[in-house]
Amino acid sequence: MKLGYRITRAALLLIPAILIFTTHISLDGVSIVFGASVLTGAFATMLYLFFHFDEKVNTKIMMEGLADAFFGVVLFTYPNPDSKFFLIIFSAWIFYMGTLLLVSGLSTMERTEYFWLYILAGITFLAVGFVIMNYNPAFKASVPSLVAIVLVIYSSVNLYLLLKRKTDIYMN
């Protein structure tokens, strides 16, 4: 897994969070920015896999790229998206990414000392996915901030795990 690709993907997911915090856009705007971000991430994944076709395929990268493409296309092609639809799509996306982190943690339990962070992050994102899906409409104004916080945490956890694993590889 290349460091540049992972940093690019994390940065692409931080862009909507930064825009939400700085511009205070509505939930409809969050939907557009998030959709563009995950579609760009899917395109970056496709480019990464294209240029590294001769290397061993990392299934986590493929699964993330497929999820980004699917959820991004659904957000942009659904005829009448509303805030509830976006919340369902976003919660399904974060639930899926939490499942990937949980599976990664369980599969690397013997090989890394950071498996507990994979598992903790995976369980956290599974729970957040359920919370966002069942969010009370009375608190609709706080949803963009919650989405931004989740994106910042997701990107930060992925970057931390990536950088820790890279330094451990080079120190051995």
Structure in a nutshell:
This protein is mostly helical and 172 residues long. Helix content is 80%, strand content 0%. It is built from six helices and no strands.
Mean pLDDT: 82
Q: What's the helix count?
A: 6
- Kindly, what is the distance between the CA atoms of the first and last residues, rounded to a whole number of angstroms? 18 Å
Instruction: Please report the total strand number as a whole number.
Output: 0
**What is the domain tally?**
1
Low-confidence stretches: none
Largest sheet: none
Share of helix among residues? over 70%
Q: Per the principal axes of the C-alpha atoms, what is the gross shape?
A: globular
- H-E order: HHHHHH
Q: Report the radius of gyration as a whole number of Å.
A: 16 Å
Helix/strand-derived category reads mainly alpha
DSSP strand content:
under 5%
Kindly list the characteristics that best describe this protein.
single chain, 172 residues, mainly alpha, 80% helix, globular
Notes on the structure:
- The mean pLDDT is 82.
- The protein has helices at 3-23, 27-51, 59-77, 83-107, 115-133, 143-171.
- With 172 residues, it is mainly alpha-helical.
- The two termini are 18 Å apart.
- It is built from six helices and no strands.
- It has one domain.
- 80% of the residues lie in helices and 0% in strands.
- The radius of gyration is 16 Å and the shape is globular.
- Helix 1 (3-23) packs antiparallel against helix 6.
